[in-house]
Amino acid sequence: MTVGLVLDLVLVTAVLVSAGLALFVPGRVASVMMFLVFGLVLAVVWARLGAPDVALAEAAIAAGVTGALLLDAVTERPRRGPDRRVGPRWLMPLLGAVAGAGLVVLLGAAALQAGPVEPGTGLGPTVLDRTDDSGVSHPVTAVLLAFRAYDTLLEVAVLTLAVVVVLSLHRDGRLETVPAPGAASPVPDALVRLAVPVIVLGAGWLLVAGSSRPGGAFQAGALLAGALILLRLGGIRLAVPTGRWLRPAVLVGLAAFLTLGYVTVALGQGWLVLAEPWQGTVILLLEAVLTVSIGACLAVLFVAGRRPAAGTGRGEEP
User: Fold this and answer.
1) What does each C-alpha distance from 55 to 64, 83, 120 come to in angstroms?
2) What is the pTM of this model?
3) pLDDT tens across 233-255, in order?
4) pLDDT less than 70: residues of the chain
5) Where are the alpha helices (DSSP H) in the chain?
6) Each residue of 11-27: b (16+ CB within 10 Å) or e?
7) DSSP class of 179
8) Cβ atoms within 10 Å of 97's Cβ, excluding its own
9) 8 exposed, middle or buried (CB, 10 Å; 0-12, 13-18, 19+)?
């Protein structure tokens, strides 16, 4: 048995165990902590499969930002009253197991029906052959912002729409009424001073490196959101825009993407069709704007989940 096979078996076991504990361990805080462990192990699995871009997104967004949102939700709004269950305690786990088994059977049947993938087939070779024409040297970035820019535009639009919907639950669509942690900061000041500069530098490196290696706007934006959340938890209220700069910070990424589409149409190139010699520079500038917008959106989602101060209108609990 090789070392690689042992590592793969350990990773598979760790994914299954952490997922099961996240679902069934008693206590909401413990469940969230196991969800974080599950996300980190899954990021290692993606890296082991040779998909570093997906691993970075999993660690930064799926595990990091989503885990922070879940942890904030379970600690900010503790469970009230006894846990009301419908039916016996074993019923929901049994239903979940049956549904999961059914899904596995369906996926297995679909995989068998599709048959084996022949080497050299699919769009992989075509993407590699055309990467040099995209203005960047990394195939994932070329796919995201050159070959299928429509999909990336829709992803940014969905994230922006989610933030707009969440903001509509607050008075005047702003977050000025959401209090900062203040003196009772849950994050030590020394940690904020040491971690935030490193996180921001890492976000900048991921942004620039995304054109030639794993990285890009979504990974850099997730790290930037982490830095903003740390500053906010450290008592710096202005770290996350809540007033007049809130909407511009949230909408600037989608606005830049749409503006680029209209400009390319006006130049006769077609919607989001970039041409030499400026396409590489335009992609880097667009990713820089998207990094700011994605970071702001994720940080705003974190802040928007906290309760407004008493007597501030919508969002106040009785």
Assistant:
1) 12, 36, 24
2) 0.71
3) 777 766 777 777 788 888 999 99
4) 1, 76-90, 92, 107, 110-111, 113-123, 133-135, 177, 179-187, 237-238, 306-318
5) 3-24, 28-48, 52-57, 66-76, 91-114, 124-130, 139-142, 149-167, 189-209, 217-233, 246-266, 279-304
6) beebbeebbebbeebee
7) P
8) 10
9) middle
